[in-house]
Records
---
Amino acid sequence: MSADRTGGVQSLERAFDLLERMADAGGEVGLSELSAGSGLPLPTIHRLMRTLVTCGYVRQQPNRRYALGPRLIRLGETASRLLGTWARPYLAELVEATGETANMALLDGDEVVYVAQVPSRHSMRMFTEVGRRVLPHSTGVGKALLAELPPEEVRALLARTGMPAATDRTITDPDAFLTELERTRALGYAVDDNEQEVGVRCLAVTVPDSPTAAAVSISGPAGRVTDSATDKIVPVLHAVARRLALALRDAGTAAD
C-alpha cells in the first residue's frame, strides 16, 4: 500500500472516529473535547472537521461548536431500512414460533424507533408502524436497550425526555425505572406490562454485539402473553437475537 493510500485510509478512520465520538457526546462538541477524547492534535481535528463540514456530514454552530450534519440523516435512514430488511426473516421465525407480532427497534438518540415488524396471524394482534418513534421508558424494547447503559446515562436521558405516562401502569419515577432495569438485567429480558398500551404485553431482548443498539420483541394481548407463555417465548427470543447478530456480523465481514 502506498504512503498516500495509507494516509488516506488513516484520515478516513479518524474522520469516522470523530463522527462516532460526536454521536456519543449527544451530537454536538467542541474541538478541544474531540482532541481530549481522541488524542489527536487540534490542527488535525480542525482539518478533518473542515472536510466533514464541506461534505455536509458536520455543521458548525454559531457558538463555534460542531454538530452532526443533515447529510447523515439520509445515510442513517437508509441503513435503518436495510437493517430492517435483514431482520424480517428472523422476525418471521419469531412469529412462527410464538404466534405473536415480532418487532425490531433501535435506540436513536433519546428515542426508540421501530425499523421492522412481522405481524401475528391472529385476528387480534398488535401493530406498530415501522418508523414510529416512542420514548424508551414505557416500552419493552426501550427497557432492554437502556438496561445496557450505565445508570448515569439513563438518568440523563430520562431528564431530557421526561417520563410521561402512556397508561396508569407506566413507570414515571427515575429511581423506580432504574430498579426495573436491574430486574431486566437479572432476568435477561425486558417486559412492557400494559405500560405502553392497556391490554398489551411485550417481551424484548437486545441483539448482542449489534453494529448499533438494537432489540427484538414480541407483543400481544396480555391474555395470551402470560407468565407461562413468557417462559416459552424468552428462550426463542434469545435464540433468534443471537442468529440475527451472527447474520449482521457476517454481513459486516463480507463488506470488509
---
Amino acid sequence: MFSGQMGYFILIGAIGLISSLVSGKLKSKFAFYSKVHLRNGMTGAEIARKMLADNGIRDVEVISVKGQLTDHYNPTNKTVNLSEVVYGHANAAAAAVAAHEVGHAVQHATAYSYLTMRSKLVPVVQVTSKMSQWVIMGGLVLMASQAMGAAGQYVAIAGLVMMGFATLFSFVTLPVEYDASNRALAWLKAKNMVTSEEYKGSEDALKWAARTYLVAAIGALASLLYWAMQILGRRD
C-alpha cells in the first residue's frame, strides 16, 4: 500500500509540474504574441464582434472583464467576456483569444453536442467535485472497521462516482476547447483577418492554451484511477 501511495504522489507531482510548466509556457507565449501587432489594427473586441456578425449571431454581447487569461464565453447570459489585455488591444494573441471565445458562442448557437453535454454537467460537477474526496475518505475509514466495512464500501464507491463526473467533465471539455480553436483559426484565415505571421502566432498561442486542458484531464483521470484502486483493492 505504501509503495502504491508513493507511486500516486510521484504521478500527481509529475502532473502538477507539467501543468505548471505548460501554464508558464502559455503565459510567455501570450506575452510574446502580444507584441505581434495586427496589420489591420483591429482590437480583440472588434475581432469578436466581426466574427459574431459573420456567423449571424446578433444576441451575444462582447464585454471587458478584469484579470489576465480570464477570457470566457458565458452561455447563460450570452456574453463573450474578454480580459482587458485582449479587449482593447490589436495583436496576434488578442485576436486568437477573442476568436476562440466567439468559437464557443458559435458552438452554442449551433447546439454543438459536446458543449451541450458540458453545460449539463456543470451544476452536477459544482456539487460533486467539492464532496467527492471527502466522501471517499469517509468511506475508506468505515471500510477499515469490521462493523461498517460493507456500508463503507458503498459510501466510498458513491464518492468515486462523484469524482467520475469531474473526470468526465474534464474530458468533455477537450473537444469543446479544440473545436473552438479550430473554428477561430478557420475564420481568421478565411476572412484574411491576419497575415501569415500573425496567423502562426495565433495558432501557437491557442495550441498551448489547449494543452492546459489536456494536462488537467490527465490529472483528473490519474486521481480517479488511484482512488478506484484504493477502494476496490480493499475488498475482501
